[in-house]
Amino acid sequence: MRKRLAEYFDFAGLGTNWRTEILAGCTTFLTMAYIIFVNPSVLAAAGMPAAAVTAATCLAAGLASILMGAVARYPLAMAPGMGLNAYFTYAVVQGMGVPWPTALGAVFLSGAAFLLLTLTGLRRRLVEAVPPSLYAAVAAGIGLFLAFIGLKNAGIIVAHPATMLALGQLTAPGPATALGGLLLTAVLLVRRVPGATLVGLLATALLAGWSGRPGPEASFTAITATAGHLDIAGALRLGLFEIIFAFLFVDLFDNLGTLLAVSKRARLVDPAGRIPRVDRILFTDSLATMGGALLGTSTVVSYIESASGVAAGGRSGVAAIVAGLLFLASFFLAPWLGTVPPYATAPALILVGALLMTHAAEVDWDNLATAIPAFLTLAAIPLTFSIATGLAFGLIAHTLLTIAAGRAREVSPFLYRLTAVLLARFFWAPVA
Prior knowledge:
Number of domains: 1
Number of strands: 4
Number of helices: 20
Oligomer: single chain
Strand order of the largest sheet: 1-4
Strand content: under 5%
């Protein structure tokens, strides 16, 4: 059985093994485990029971990640997305006065629309429409994004009223611990120690005195307060099409950016620049969002923290399955699991960001028609805190500059239509 599974996941072709994949899955889980506690706190502000959302978060992340690993065989872990949960709570429920069951109905409909786009082949065409230079720019931009999040979580970079950002107090416990962990993890990576990222993360957490603190209890009884409570008819009755489009837009482009970045880093892109089994990835993605809404949580997305598992050597779906199993285990352990301090995961995020930045070298910076869209993508992702926005900027710039260069025939009709939709999104649709 073990040999047959290794063949199914193509361990030989990917140059990996069980030990590496399990370590990678653990690394991915630890870098994104914060969502177990953060997602309920965000959605609780929408009036949703925290205990029920904790259960829904663990189940949605676990089942979606296992499905991604088993069906698509990619090292992409999934969970309710940060940003989309805030939009759900603060823009839709609080800002527009939409009841949370109705908002969940809108999330489900966005997933259904996602599935329709997948089955009709439109999502695949979108993936194929992205120029190779933007593939590289998205990966590098996400690298900067991850590094920025890590530096912010560690307190190494802090907000400043005059300059927007400033250097934090490096001698404070959080920044000092993060810097120590950063040095340790970097040394382990340089010396090519197996599982360096996971070892560094755990060592940093222990150095921080991580003892765990109880979170809201999750149980099969608790989840009944949200599971199946979505109001699809209410979403249609209120005409929440702009909100559905906003969920769809951010989910579509965030997932596309994550897929491109992780695939590039894991060297899973073929010589022609195509991503193998992309239809399976997109199909799983659609089902995850719909399933998450049924369980009682906001949009489920592929997590860019999966790149930490790839940096630890993960290449196959086993890494995603391991992360998913750990999320399912967290369903029962949530009250005792506690949370890894954000400054303990910061070194992993910063160093994964450094590894992703190597893809910037793949952009032809001497060709301005290529370089400008790539730069806009690379810069906008961390500065707008949105992978979707950065990729949209790049695609719009690519289309307009190709036309300006007198090569309008090189732009496909599909890309023209996509550019028009993206422009309409920025000018008329709500911003998520």
